[in-house]
Structures are given as structure tokens and as C-alpha cells.
Design goal:
Distance between the termini: 79 Å
Oligomer: single chain
Strand content: 5-15%
Shape: elongated
Length: 458
């Protein structure tokens, strides 16, 4: 900063000498000879930051090369974290920064929708789970460098508990369309459409509890090909082995992936006696009776609590196999068989199983071509079973007589709180009376839940 002092004229130099005593100083002389002219007119002493602030800013600006954080005072750490860029390499920030505010900025700047409740209210967990999911969704075998996955494993393995991958790409490029069509005509699509093997990843995540997968392509547009949705037998082998080794896994969902009977049996063989698995979802697949029979074996050789086989091709033989397992089971709480075709033979088999089963709370048999005989047997279930709280018979043909039998069975039932009879042709009056009983059970259950805490206090 250059400061120039205006020099007095020669004739006035004798009067320009400042007095040693303030009372003798001349106001005119002060205003004339002590005026400062600064080079920067906006410069002010107030804006000069203190040395501490300069140091903290330097640390934030050079954090990638020299990450200093633990040695700072707590208030200084806060200032540095607030100034850090969210674009820093994960190799620097992953295992060094645990501050939730920093990871919140990383999430909100990258994704528009951030529901932290789905991630245990942890922003850091959300970031690493969604970051890893994004890598897997866009991984193209034989094209994408596998190190993209391998390098992120040591960074995220302590934070990932759930993976939801609704797209897995096969090794198909847009400019290979004609070549792939030729291979498809030759029956060689299995050779060229294997997906990324998740085995290395899944077994390296010690805290993974939920795995949701769909082998297909989203938004393929004009590049649609059937082999983009081909979950091959080799894919199934790789996945089954990986899931077997993942002892921490509690929830496994494999949906919209053309899983047939052979692949179902392969999966079941590797899931038998799994130590932690409590929920299995194989909905929207191609499972038939043989696959359902394999799942029935799994029911009594695991700790399954929730089983979802919604929208498959299970008929009465498969339903009978599931019913046989259900009659002996003591862990399953929820069973969803919606949108299959079990018909009355399968429906009655399941009803007979529920006469002895004492653990199942929810069953969904909607859209299964059921009619009066199933309703008659379930009237006995309603009169005897005290565990079931939810039944869904929607979109079946139970008829007026079937509805009356269900109403009679409900006369003494105090447990059922949900009963869906939409589009079952039971008649409006019967449906209204049934809903009145169910509503009464709901109120009793609600009052009971309110009285329990009071009883504990007393």
C-alpha cells in the first residue's frame, strides 16, 4: 500500500511543523497536510482477515494434497468442513470425514430427492450406497473398467447396508445391434449377455443386510432388444454363490428378472439354512410349480418371515407344495401369492394349512381364479385361526354363497383387522357386514395397543 503525503509550500513550511501540544495544533494544518491518498479506494483495515482465518482457508483450499483435520481445534474443524468442496476425491474424504453436515451437502448437491429416513438417518450412508448403486447401474461388462468397483469397495464397505440396483446392463453396445441379432438367431445369446458378477462386491461388504436386484435395462428406448433382459443361468450361478457367502444378508429381492424354475431351484439350494435371511422377494418372474416346490422346501429350512411370489405362474400343484410347508412352519409371518393361478385346489390346500398354522399373520391370494369352495374352507379358518390379521381375496369369483360363508366364519373372529374383498362378487350387503366386523376388530386392537403402555406404568 503506497501512501503519499502532500508536501507544504516552501513559504508555509515553518507553520507546517506540528506542535508538541494538541492545544496548539492548527485544524487547518491537520486537514491540509495529513490527508492520505490510497492506491485502492475500497481498501479498509476492517476487511483484512486475521491470521487464523487465512490458515484455515489455506487448509480448506489444499485439503486434497494435505488433509489436516484431526489436529485442529473443534471450532476450527467446523470452519474447515464448511469450506471444503464436495468434489474432493473419495480416497481423501471417505475414511477421514465423518461429519454429517458435510455428507449432507454432498448428497443434496448431487441428487434432487434425498429421503434420509431410508438410510437410517445417516447422510454418509446414503451417499455411499447411492454412489455404489450408480456405478453398478451403469457398469457395462467388457467395456467398463472393473477397477471402478474394486477401488470403491475399501472406501464404502463400512457404510453400505442396503443396495437397490434396478438396472444391470449386459455387454451390448448400440453399434452391435446387427451382430447381436445374428447371434440371437443362432441361439448364442447366452454366450454374450452375461452381466457383471456381483460376487466380489457382495462378499466384501460385511454390513450388507438388504440386496434388491433387477436384471434389465431402464429407458432403453429405440435400442430395445430382448437379450437386454436376459438373466442367464451363469448370472444366476454367480449370484447364488455370492448370496450364500453373504452371511449378514437379511432381505433378498430379485424381481423382474425372468427367473424360471431351474434358476429358482439353484437359488434355493444356496439359500437353504441361511443364518440371517428373513425376507425373500421373487415377484414378477416366471416361476411355475417346480420352482414353487423348491421354495416350499426353503420355507422349512430357513428363518424366512416374509415370502413374496407375486405375479408368477404358480398353479395348484405349486400352491399345494407351499401349503404343505406352511402347515409345519413356525416362522413365516407374511405370504404374497397375488397374480398367480392357484385355483380352488391350491386355495383349499392353503386354507387347510392355516387350520394348523399359528404364526402367519398376512396372506394375499388376490387374482388367483378362486371361487366358492375356497371361501367355504376359509370360513373354517376364520372361525378357528386366531393369528391371521390380514387376508386379501380381491379380484376372485367367490360369489354370494362364498361371501355368506365368510361372514358366518367371522362371527366370533376377533383377530382379523384387514379383509380385502374388492371385485369378489360377494354382494354389497355381505361386504358391508364383513367390513363392520373388521372395523370393530380394528378399534379393539387400537384400544388394546393404547392400554398396554398404561398397564406397564401402573
Amino acid at each position: 500500500m503506497l501512501i503519499r503525503m502532500q508536501q507544504p509550500a516552501a513559504s508555509d513550511r515553518s507553520t507546517a511543523i506540528p506542535s508538541l501540544y494538541p492545544s496548539q495544533a492548527s485544524p487547518t494544518a491537520d486537514s491540509k497536510y495529513k490527508h492520505c491518498i490510497a492506491e485502492d479506494p475500497e481498501w479498509s483495515l476492517v476487511t483484512v482477515p486475521c491470521l487464523t482465518e487465512l490458515c484455515l482457508q489455506h487448509i480448506a483450499d489444499h485439503f486434497e494434497k494435505n488433509p489436516i483435520l484431526d489436529r485442529l481445534l473443534p471450532e476450527h474443524q467446523r470452519k474447515v468442513l464448511d469450506r471444503l468442496s464436495t468434489g474432493l476425491p473419495l480416497t481423501v474424504t471417505a475414511n477421514l470425514i465423518s461429519d454429517e453436515d458435510y455428507w449432507k451437502r454432498c448428497c443434496t448437491e448431487r441428487w434432487q430427492v434425498c429421503n434420509i429416513s431410508n438410510y437410517g438417518y445417516s447422510w454418509k450412508r446414503m451417499f455411499f450406497e447411492r454412489h455404489l448403486e450408480n456405478i453398478l447401474k451403469h457398469f457395462i461388462p467388457n467395456t467398463t473398467d472393473p477397477n471402478q468397483v474394486l477401488e470403491v469397495i475399501p472406501l464404502c464397505k463400512d457404510y453400505v447396508q442396503k443396495l437397490e440396483v434396478d438396472q444391470l446392463l449386459p455387454p451390448v453396445k448400440v453399434d452391435q445391434k446387427e451382430e447381436m441379432d445374428d447371434l440371437s438367431d443362432m441361439g448364442l445369446e447366452e454366450v454374450s449377455t452375461h452381466h457383471y458378477d456381483l460376487g466380489v462386491l457382495i462378499t466384501a461388504l460385511p454390513h450388507l443386510q438388504e440386496l434388491h436386484l433387477s436384471y434389465g435395462v431402464k429407458d432403453c428406448g429405440m435400442n430395445f432388444q430382448w437379450n437386454l433382459f436376459n438373466f442367464t443361468y451363469q448370472d444366476c450361478c454367480n449370484l447364488a454363490v455370492a448370496v450364500k457367502k453373504c452371511h449378514s444378508l437379511k432381505v433378498f429381492k430379485l424381481t423382474h428378472s425372468t427367473v424360471d424354475d431351474d434358476k429358482t431351484r439353484l437359488l434355493v439350494r444356496n439359500l437353504l439354512d441361511h443364518p440371517c435371511l428373513v425376507e425373500l422377494n421373487l415377484s414378477h418372474n416366471l416361476i411355475k410349480d417346480k420352482g414353487a416346490r423348491a421354495v416350499g422346501k426353503l420355507i422349512n429350512h430357513s428363518r424366512l418371515e416374509t415370502l413374496n411370489l407375486y405375479n408368477n405362474q404358480i398353479h395348484h400343484l405349486g400352491a399345494q407344495a407351499l401349503a404343505q410347508a406352511l402347515a409345519k412352519n413356525s416362522t413365516l409371518i407374511s405370504l404374497n401369492l397375488r397374480l398367480n393361478c392357484v385355483e380352488d385346489e391350491g386355495g383349499k390346500a392353503i386354507g387347510r394349512a392355516l387350520l394348523t398354522n399359528t404364526t402367519l399373520k398376512s396372506i394375499h391370494l388376490g387374482s388367483n381364479n378362486l371361487s366358492g369352495p375356497t371361501a367355504i374352507l376359509f370360513s373354517q379358518v376364520l372361525a378357528k385361526n386366531t393369528t391371521l390379521t390380514s387376508i386379501n381375496f380381491s379380484c376372485n369369483h367367490l360369489g354370494l354363497d362364498g361371501g355368506k360363508h365368510l361372514l358366518d366364519g367371522l362371527a366370533e373372529n376377533k383377530a382379523l383387522t384387514e379383509f380385502d374383498l374388492r371385485l369378489t362378487e360377494v354382494g354389497q350387503e355381505t361386504e358391508f357386514l364383513i367390513h363392520q366386523i373388521v372395523w370393530s376388530n380394528q378399534e379393539a386392537a387400537r384400544l388394546g395397543s393404547l392400554q398396554q403402555p398404561l398397564a406397564k406404568l401402573l
